[in-house]
Amino acid sequence: MGSEGENGHLSSRILASWLIGGLVIAVSLLGFNFALPKNRKKRPVRVYMDGCFDMMHYGHCNALRQARALGDQLVVGVVSDAEIIANKGPPVTPLSERMIMVSGVKWVDEVIPDAPYAITEDFMRKLFDEYNIDYIIHGDDPCILPDGTDAYALAKKVGRYKQIKRTEGVSSTDIVGRMLLCVRERSTGGSHNHSSLQRQFSHGHSHKSEDGGSGSGTRISHFLPTSRRIVQFSNGKGPGQDARIVYIDGAFDLFHAGHVEILRLARGLGDFLLVGIHTDQTVSANRGAHRPIMNLHERSLSVLACRYVDEVIIGAPYEVSKDMITTFNISLVVHGTVAEDNDYQKEERNPYSVPISLGISKILESPLDITTSTIIKRIVSNHEAYQRRNEKKAESERRYYEDKSYVSGD
Prior knowledge:
The protein is an alpha/beta fold. The protein contains 16 helices and 10 strands. Strands 3-2-1-4-5 form a 5-stranded parallel beta sheet. It has a 5-stranded parallel beta sheet with strand order 8-7-6-9-10. Helix 4 (95-103) crosses helix 10 (257-267) and helix 7 crosses helix 16. The chain is globular, with a radius of gyration of 29 Å.
């Protein structure tokens, strides 16, 4: 009898354990079912990045690429002309052109015009409430207001700020410096100086300031291309089997709104846009030894970042040959009406003679009357203001880092 009692007691304990275990599992499953719809309704992470995006270059594009990687959707604020003038000096490109440039970058999902230079409390609330922004992004380079304060202090204070790495080797200030140096070298004449300058542009040698010192003087490209960076900018997809491939070529120096608009039109004529980017030597031969301002790989990255471009040929030949058309299965070769070297039609050897003879050549009406020379002329016509702007920025950054070093005890 004692043994039977013990067995009965054991059976009761086992049964109780099963009941408790089943209850725990049921509660867990119930909780899981309650949580599941919430996960299904999870909205995309939206990040915000702003900037002047004046003289937009591959460094800006790389910043936008990094920002986009921190979320699912990237909203970009483009600072107004008035705000730039008040905080930095006159912009080289007006808001309308800067909007085209930013909208044309493949990593940008939405653009806000006339954004403030500094993130104010009211604008930050608008970003969070109206635009559903989760995080505000900026590079690790300082953004200093005229009063010496950090433009992103409020975003950092509320814990909604994330930082990305600045792209070394290029800045708008640096590019303006290159143009001023280029114009100065050209005006002094002398083919030796021109050739030396061109070699420095093409091979990334450094150059001290115009008056022989350091500081706010002009500098030559320090960009060192890597296969990894090219892959980061590439689409990674080739054309489909029956794709209509459109080809357009050029220097694409100082990549500007005119370039973006002609690429947009070209892409609309087919399924895949292939862009040929001429070598530094080809550009120099056709536009003078003082060109290009940006070297081949810098120009290639700017074009690759454009949402309308599917693939580029880095160092494309000046003449479009039959072999090239066959190799890349090109259906149509296009060219804009606005270009700096449109005199090719008067030359003995027209670079587009083969596609013309094959009936696959088309001239597109360029939407904007802007060339690289247009940008350079804007700089030269107001070079004193831009020089003061460069010096002002350099001084602000110097004071910022001095204060930072003092606080940290370095």
